[in-house]
Amino acid sequence: MQQLTSQALEHMIPQQTKTSIMIIGGAEDKVHGREILQTFVHRAGASNANLAIIPSASREPAVQGERYQKIFEEMGATSIEVFDIRERHHCEDPKWHAFLETCTGVFMTGGDQLRLYSLLADTLLMEKIRTGARQGRMALAGTSAGAAVMGHHMIAGGGSGESPNRSLVDMATGLDIVPELVVDQHFHNRNRMARLVSAVAAHPDKVGIGIDEDTCALFEAQGLLRVVGKGCVTIVDTHEMSYTNLVNAGATDPLSVFNLRVHILSYGDQYNFHSRRPSSAPSV
Amino acid sequence: MQQLTSQALEHMIPQQTKTSIMIIGGAEDKVHGREILQTFVHRAGASNANLAIIPSASREPAVQGERYQKIFEEMGATSIEVFDIRERHHCEDPKWHAFLETCTGVFMTGGDQLRLYSLLADTLLMEKIRTGARQGRMALAGTSAGAAVMGHHMIAGGGSGESPNRSLVDMATGLDIVPELVVDQHFHNRNRMARLVSAVAAHPDKVGIGIDEDTCALFEAQGLLRVVGKGCVTIVDTHEMSYTNLVNAGATDPLSVFNLRVHILSYGDQYNFHSRRPSSAPSV
């Protein structure tokens, strides 16, 4: 009976309000096919979408906000608000809270993830967005810094070109939208495998997810990810991790990390966070 | 009875003639502790060593040969020959074949692995060295290009900063000293994870091994590796690989590669190629 009710409900939910959390690796195509941004607008309701753009990670929020507004308008969206939050108290603006009542999609731009976090964390505005996205009432997309903030733990910065080590990655707290993830972006483009490994070794209860540029990890349903875009999504799964020297290692000592399971996913591939299994894109 | 004989034989083999194949990730310390080079000289017999240096990968073989000769002399070795092979027919020089009769250690320098391969492949000289090393009659070390040639398949070149893809790595044939490996060097230093993944996806019967600078994968016994030096040795094990799109992917299409098992090893950690299991450094 429970199941019947769920199925009945599923049929009542229109396509555009299914869960659509989009974690984008930065540098998404804004000129040609624009598949990732198109997907966002489509999932938010296309010409019926009410879109909010949060450019607060950027040092040029007005420029970034306008840029995405123009793109989304070209895609047919007519109702767009730029939430130009530059101080924490801006999050209390009743105008934006009113807009969120009927908002169908929120887009967080790139910039500095620490800036984005410090402006939005623990605000009622953010709580409404998180809840709306999780319940499938709105699509939520974040690119680059907007992607980095998705997890409970966040990679705030780090390096490359070194053996994995504790000081290779700076961890901070994220906006907790998909708590089970540690997200890294511009992933293969900026050679970030060693820093993601260093991050998950310290947080083995999380799953590391590295997203390449112009690539999106699209969470369509609870715990199910599908790849959209030009590059790879890399899953670093620690649940079989049998050993790390991390606790005893000095800050720059090379790490030992045994039994990581790594999946490289490309276009159309899926990953199920419950079964921890990837599946390949259906052949056309 | 077989076992007793093996055990008896083991006791008869002096320390310095145990298998010692040393695969070095390049840029090994030549000034301070020089642990990796010390290990090589020690395993080749220290002051009783008869050492051959093969600088043929280098464009400046005389300079490289002299450099290592000086270092090994400072470590107490007195009998050292530089096999300055610049043409394939140099491999037939009877002087060097005579030296190999009592040689206890061969060191291959860095440079260009394709040059090293083209000078040594399929020569009687190389066959004698390979056999001597495998049978434990001599230590064999290779650094950088000298490490790259160790497998049956060799990474001849490639790139970084991209999603794994077929064109990210140029494969060639190696000197087949440890056939089951695909070796990459300067590994984390030059961000080569994506190229090693691209390489092993195409050769899933091999094990990928990425060796950082000033780091050595020391094969002490058949199928057993121990880490010496300052960085990490990364094992990319494909034996559980369940899917790759490699065969159907275009040259620059991003790859899908599911179920890689990855181990990051640091100083003193071991890896057993038979059981495919890592073990941590014994605590001191």
UniProtKB/TrEMBL annotation, chains A, B:
| Recorded name of the encoding gene | cphB
Query: Could you tell me the keywords of this UniProt record?
Result: Carboxypeptidase, Hydrolase, Protease, Serine protease
Q: Which GO terms describe its biological process?
A: proteolysis
Entries under PANTHER family matching the protein: CYANOPHYCINASE
Question: Could you tell me which Gene3D superfamilies the record lists for this protein?
Answer: 3.40.50.880
Catalytic site positions: S144, H186, E213
Q: Which Pfam families match?
A: Peptidase_S51
Under InterPro entries, the record lists: Class_I_gatase-like, Peptidase_S51, Peptidase_S51_cyanophycinase
Q: Which family does it belong to?
A: Belongs to the peptidase S51 family.
List the EC numbers from the record: 3.4.15.6
Catalysed reaction, written as an equation? [L-4-(L-arginin-2-N-yl)aspartate](n) + H2O = [L-4-(L-arginin-2-N-yl)aspartate](n-1) + L-4-(L-arginin-2-N-yl)aspartate
Q: What is this protein called?
A: Cyanophycinase
Q: Which residues does UniProt assign to the signal peptide?
A: none
One example GO MF annotation: carboxypeptidase activity
The kind of enzyme this is, by top-level EC class, is hydrolase
Q: Which SUPFAM superfamilies match?
A: Class I glutamine amidotransferase-like
Q: Has UniProt tagged this entry with the keyword Manganese?
A: no
Q: Where are the transmembrane segments?
A: none
What does this protein's UniProt record list under function?
Answer: Exopeptidase that catalyzes the hydrolytic cleavage of multi-L-arginyl-poly-L-aspartic acid (cyanophycin; a water-insoluble reserve polymer) into aspartate-arginine dipeptides.
